[in-house]
């Protein structure tokens, strides 16, 4: 049966691109009862979800993720692979279903009701993402397939246009492959040189070395905000100041920060920043590139086709302004709208609260893992000055991480990741070929950690019994 939609008044789409912040009002995705049953002492922002006393954020939000309530291989599922992809709350799934059942239509084309509604929701999602990371205008947000495509977009447009032989791209050994390989390709084509910063004694990116490496030859600095292996955070504000001092631009891989903490692109002064929806409770198939509008405006198109043009003649074409210049063809409409719902969901909890809870549960995970015999945990040890975010990569002496992951899954229903986590250079730098990784999110609980640790100890005993 077709979904009944409320009457829809056609908005002025141009207003969605205006630099003045449109008061669209972020929808509260939680029920009114939930929103008003607060026993929290701190004042709540409009639409914010309260955490009743005595209940952790993990316990409160879990019911929104029905996938977590299942048995895997005869055990209760313990999902500790959220850094690979997060689970999706019902609100996001419902929003996407509403689109398909109620107003499925192409965007930016037809003038009929369904298309106008779809276009409005698609552009509203852009506005939500823009507000979420505090961009100065929604036109600074380009929807891409994922973060990888967003980096490739910058590499193929800004990179190929601006880099020449002898120019330097400074990056780190701890980057995800998606932030290394596109620049290797661009360096081969342009004659630019890639330079890699190593780690210091705490297994943190060596900031002194990074600073020293910057020179007037540096044209771009490519850095992660949070490492998907080390769990460490980089001071992007400082890196941006140092890079800008030598006239370089900064591209921030924020895949592991945007889902877990407040990210403010203006405060960071990032020139480009990328993230993927599927790691922030949104659907797969969509991510975004943030770019300062003056940079996006000067960049040539990435792909050619419909949507990205202004005028097409037989011998040449002119192009649309950003962001549409970079969104050739029919976009991932349901996914963009789903990402908008994910942003609503996260904002309803509040990113500060998510971060605070995750730091607490990350410390718990780190502490519990340390109690496991013959374990080596990678990345900085959490302390007063050093935050280790809610993921831990580790190895247990003489047991392959994939063997550990296999037994955890098959005998205990615990889902972790093993392998190089798309960071082979980092693993080589650490002198290993693979590691195991347990990663949490705000819907994870201390019981998840306890179950994992118990299962890990059992698994180690199991393997040691063969020795
Ligand atoms: C730090 C980091 N960068 C980039 C990526 C690539 O994200 P995607 O595969 O969604 O493009 C990931 C995904 O694991 C990541 O963790």
TrEMBL record:
InterPro entries: Aminotrans_V_dom, Cys_dSase_SufS, PyrdxlP-dep_Trfase, PyrdxlP-dep_Trfase_major, PyrdxlP-dep_Trfase_small. GO terms for molecular function: cysteine desulfurase activity; pyridoxal phosphate binding. Residues 78-452 form the Aminotransferase class V domain. GO terms for biological process: cysteine metabolic process. The keyword Transferase applies. This is cysteine desulfurase. Its cofactor is pyridoxal 5'-phosphate. Its EC number is 2.8.1.7. It catalyses: (sulfur carrier)-H + L-cysteine = (sulfur carrier)-SH + L-alanine. Keywords: Pyridoxal phosphate, Transferase. The keyword Transmembrane does not apply.
């Amino acid at each position: 049966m077709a979904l009944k939609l409320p009457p829809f008044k056609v908005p002025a789409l141009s207003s969605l691109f205006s630099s003045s912040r449109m008061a669209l009002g972020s929808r509260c995705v939680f029920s009114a009862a939930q929103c008003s049953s607060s026993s929290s002492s701190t004042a709540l922002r409009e639409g914010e979800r309260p955490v009743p006393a005595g209940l952790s954020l993990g316990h409160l939000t879990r019911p929104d993720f029905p996938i977590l309530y299942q048995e895997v291989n005869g055990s209760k599922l313990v999902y500790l692979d959220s850094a690979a992809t997060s689970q999706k709350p019902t609100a996001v799934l419902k929003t996407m279903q509403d689109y398909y059942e109620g107003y499925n239509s192409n965007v930016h084309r037809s003038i009929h009701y369904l298309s106008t509604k779809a276009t409005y929701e698609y552009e509203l999602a852009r506005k939500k993402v823009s507000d979420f990371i505090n961009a100065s205008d929604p036109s600074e947000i380009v929807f891409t397939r994922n973060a990888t495509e967003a980096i490739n977009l910058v590499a193929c447009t800004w990179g190929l246009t601006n880099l020449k032989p002898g120019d330097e791209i400074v990056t780190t050994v701890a980057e995800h492959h998606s932030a290394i390989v596109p620049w290797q390709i661009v360096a081969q084509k342009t004659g630019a040189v890639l330079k890699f910063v190593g780690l210091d004694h705490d297994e943190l990116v060596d900031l002194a070395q990074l600073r020293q490496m910057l020179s007037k030859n540096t044209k771009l600095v490519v850095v992660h905000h949070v490492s998907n292996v080390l769990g460490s955070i980089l001071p992007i504000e400082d890196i941006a100041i140092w890079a800008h001092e030598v006239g370089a631009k900064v591209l921030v891989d924020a895949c592991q920060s945007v889902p877990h903490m407040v990210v403010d692109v203006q405060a960071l002064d990032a020139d480009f920043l990328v993230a993927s929806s599927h790691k922030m409770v949104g659907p797969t198939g969509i991510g975004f590139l943030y770019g300062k509008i003056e940079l996006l405006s000067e960049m040539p198109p990435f792909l050619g086709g419909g949507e990205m043009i202004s005028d097409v003649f037989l011998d040449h074409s002119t192009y649309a302004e950003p962001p549409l210049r970079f969104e050739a063809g029919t976009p991932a409409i349901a996914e963009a709208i789903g990402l908008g719902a994910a942003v609503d969901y996260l904002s309803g909890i509040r990113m500060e609260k998510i971060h605070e809870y995750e730091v607490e549960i990350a410390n718990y995970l780190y502490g519990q893992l340390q109690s496991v015999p013959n374990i080596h945990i990678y990345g900085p040890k959490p302390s007063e000055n050093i935050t280790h975010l809610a993921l831990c990569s580790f190895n247990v002496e003489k047991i392959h991480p994939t063997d550990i992951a296999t037994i955890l899954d098959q005998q205990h229903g615990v889902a972790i990741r093993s392998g190089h986590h798309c960071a082979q250079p980092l693993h080589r730098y650490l002198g290993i070929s693979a590691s195991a990784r347990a990663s949490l999110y705000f819907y994870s609980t201390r019981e998840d950690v306890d179950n994992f640790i118990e299962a890990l100890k059992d698994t180690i005993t199991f393997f040691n019994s063969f020795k």
